[in-house]
Write a structure and sequence with these properties.
There is one protein chain. By secondary structure, this protein is of the alpha+beta class. Helices cover about 25% and strands about 25% of the residues. The protein has a three-stranded antiparallel sheet, covered by helices on one side. It has a three-stranded antiparallel sheet with strand order 2-4-3, with no helix packed on it. It is elongated, with a radius of gyration of 17 Å.
Length: about 90
């Protein structure tokens, strides 16, 4: 509760607490129904999926193709003046 009150006193970009997850990683294509067979492949038929989720305390959420892409989108979200107040 106190954290929410402090965020209201902070700069607008500090009100949005963003985080990024880890890439999905290596998997076998038959383990996932949504796999299109794209990406890097290694022995044993495993495929690499670098997709990463970025999210914010305001409810914003996006999936990027890579962890660096997710970080860039999270930073862009924090800097956008139209981000508005967190809910």
């Amino acid at each position: 509760m106190a954290d929410a009150g402090l965020r209201l006193l902070c700069a607008p970009e500090a009100r949005h607490l963003t985080r990024t997850g880890q890439p999905s990683g290596w998997h076998r294509p038959f383990d996932r129904s949504d796999s299109a067979g794209l990406g890097r492949e290694r022995r044993g038929g495993q495929m690499y999926d670098g997709s990463t989720v970025a999210s914010c305390s305001c409810g914003w959420r996006v999936t990027a193709e890579s962890q660096l892409g997710a970080r860039a989108l999270a930073e862009q979200h924090r800097r956008e003046p139209s981000s508005g107040e967190p809910t």
